[in-house]
Amino acid sequence: MATASTSSPGSSQGTARRVRLVIWILLGVLVAGGAAWYFALTSAKPSQDPPQAGAEQLVRTESHRLTSPAVEKAQLVEFLDFECEACRSIHPFVEELKEEFGDRITFVSRYFPLSSHPNSGPAALAVEAAARQGKFEAMSARMFETQEQWHGKAESQGPLFRTFAEELGLDLAAFDAAVADQKTKERIRADIADGTALGVTGTPTFFLNGEKLTLTTKQDFRQKLLDAVK
Fold this sequence. Notes:
By secondary structure, the protein is an alpha+beta fold. Helices cover 56% and strands 10% of the residues. The protein has helices at 9-42, 55-58, 85-101, 120-131, 136-145, 147-150, 158-167, 172-180, 182-197, 218-229; strands spanning 64-65, 74-80, 105-111, 205-208, 211-212.
């Protein structure tokens, strides 16, 4: 007569451990591509305590100032991610505000690529490389205009970003050198460090005269700028 077999508790536990191990491996593979750029940007960052948040974290000497009012009444600083859909969505409105208030408010743009976006780091590198040839705003706009084309792709979109540089008439040899230059990466790391010190956790994040804004509507955003320049 056949007898029913039963697995031992040790065997069941071993199977459960193997299943958990497989799950963790699969999760690791999925996130590796998205996090790779982040490690590339931060791996060479020196070990040190994060800077204390203050005025110097908001705007650095090398920060990209998009307007230069003769008499500055306020500063608006944006930490952004070129792969962030919310950043793309609000970009046209920020451009409207820049046209409306640029003679009184200094608009400043800073990088804050998120590790959840696989190509936000490469995009920032491409924009900063273009900035070295005076094309920061042109390349930024190109990133947002084409975001749906490359957003969320696991493979590097660096070659595509290089075509944007070519379309903008940039010196490609100089562009390639800037993308590969450690100083370009350090420039982006500095923005990430400052944003982190200031409490930035997502994008876009705006600071008006040092105050982190909580925005509800476009009208609310515009009204805050109106109040700042009175």
